[in-house]
Amino acid sequence: MVRLACKDLVNVLDGVMINHDPYGVVLVIGTWNYPYLITLGPVAGAISAGNTVIIKPSEVAPATAALIAKLIPKYLDPTCYAVLLGGVKETTQLLKERFDYIFYTGSTNVGKIIHKAANEYLVPTTLELGGKSPVYLDSTVDMDVAVKRILWGKCANAGQTCVAPDYLMCSKQVQSEFVAKAKTILREWYGKNVKGSPDLGRIIPEPVDSLSKASIDLEEVALRISHSSLKSSDRMKPRSGDWAITINFLQEATITSLSNGSSVKRLVEFLSNGTVAVGGETDVSERFIGPTVLVNVKPSDPVMQEEIFGPILPILVVEDMFEAVNIINSREHPLALYIFSKDKSVQNLFTTQTTSGSVTINETLQQLCVHELPFGGVGQSGMGAYHGKYSFDTFTHNKSVFVKDYNVIGEKLASFVATLRLYLMLEYTFSLLILHQDRRYPNSLLHVALTLDIHSVVALAIT
Fold it and tell me: Where are the catalytic residues (predicted)?
């Protein structure tokens, strides 16, 4: 894709363009909490930009990973787009290869490992990570609506969403209102038997180190990759060249086995922080954690030290919005920040005085649904962004192209403008030095002098 760039006077007769070139071979490493959307979304962006793609679905969702591995070669050219199944061992080996771009979604700790591996060859990388996304709530809002929106963002997918509200900050009075309304709303949503509700999911088990074999219906694929350039018409075809690597995808893929309860036990331990004000039901054997609101929580408690990734919402009582801003700024930059207030000054304070991947006012999660908005983190919550056109931008290199002809008029124009710029720059610098030493000359006289000089230079250049 080629886009014409804006020109200035000196380049009016030149060709000035920007080529949006595909990077080449892209590695997309997906995650398990939304295994189709988060894995295939970046793949679509990489394909639209003209790249070939190797897809590594998460081993924590093995059924989904196996289905992706079955469907991709059925509908896409297997010599350009391939799926690799496996766990930590296979991913580690994969990262030793030299890709042109790496896109990873997952935890911050693993993101650091991915980034370190990419640095071996200075491979550009997008890291979609997580963090503790805070919520600030004040008394100016419609409390019924606000509580529903916050709880919905926390309980969707059992809280296993990278931008889920992680903790709430509010005054003591607002906390009392929130807790009272939360009890009513959660009863309306899930009934008396929360565990038996069909509308509440379970906690996904975590992988363990032991590996097992899982048979999948996947043909052996050999993908040859090179670093030779592509013609625009051949970008979707296999590349050929002197340098190539071959990756074999075996019919028997190694998939990490799963533990039944390690994530749940971690969440259960969080319930001992502070006081359970709402919910608190658990069943480790069924990986069940009921929607829970914690009060009397301190910033130093374990539940406030890492991303929760479950339906538990701790509340920190703050004196005012300024204390809330200080708490946010004392921690790593969050992936999302939620502000519930009708007060424009409050909204503006959090938007301008904090740093986060995104800011959403009076709602949760909905920023993900607007494809005109880039989605991505900052600092420990990630680097780079995608969604909509930003996905295309992520997977393309903006290559500057400048074309100069041998037009005589253009040559004189370029020489004239360059001379004029240099003269004015020197004149302005010299004038500033004079004014600094002798402030008797008013600025108006300087402007007149510069104007006369411009006319002199123009006349000189024309002749």
Answer: 128, 162
For the chain, the distance separating the N- and C-terminal CA atoms, rounded to the nearest angstrom, is: 43
One fold for 2-129+215-249+392-400 and 134-205+258-373 = no
Residue 163: which residues within 8 A CB-CB, separation 6 or more?
133, 335, 336, 357, 358, 364, 365, 367, 368
Q: Which of 59, 90, 128, 307 is catalytic?
A: 128
Q: Under CATH, to which class is 134-205+258-373 assigned?
A: alpha beta
- Residue holding tokens 């625009």? 232
Question: Is 128 considered catalytic here?
Answer: yes
Whether residue 287 is predicted with pLDDT greater than 70 in this model: the reply is yes
Structure tokens at 83: 């799926």
Catalytic residue (choose from 59, 162, 170, 307): 162
Cα–Cα distance list, 40 to 54, 125, 297, 413, 432 (Å): 11, 17, 38, 51, 58
Residue 454 tokens, joined: 């411009």
Per domain, the residue ranges of the chain are 2-129+215-249+392-400, 134-205+258-373, 407-461
Degrees, nearest 5: CA angle 161-166-170: 145
pTM of full prediction above 0.90: no
Secondary structure (DSSP) of 28-91: EE--SSSTTHHHHHHHHHHHHTT-EEEEE--TTSHHHHHHHHHHHHHHS-TTTEEE----HHHH
Per the annotation, the verdict on 369 as an active-site residue is no
Kindly report, residue by residue over 329-384, the tens digit of the pLDDT. Answer: 999 999 999 999 999 999 999 999 999 999 999 999 999 999 999 999 999 999 99
Domain 2-129+215-249+392-400 CATH class label? alpha beta
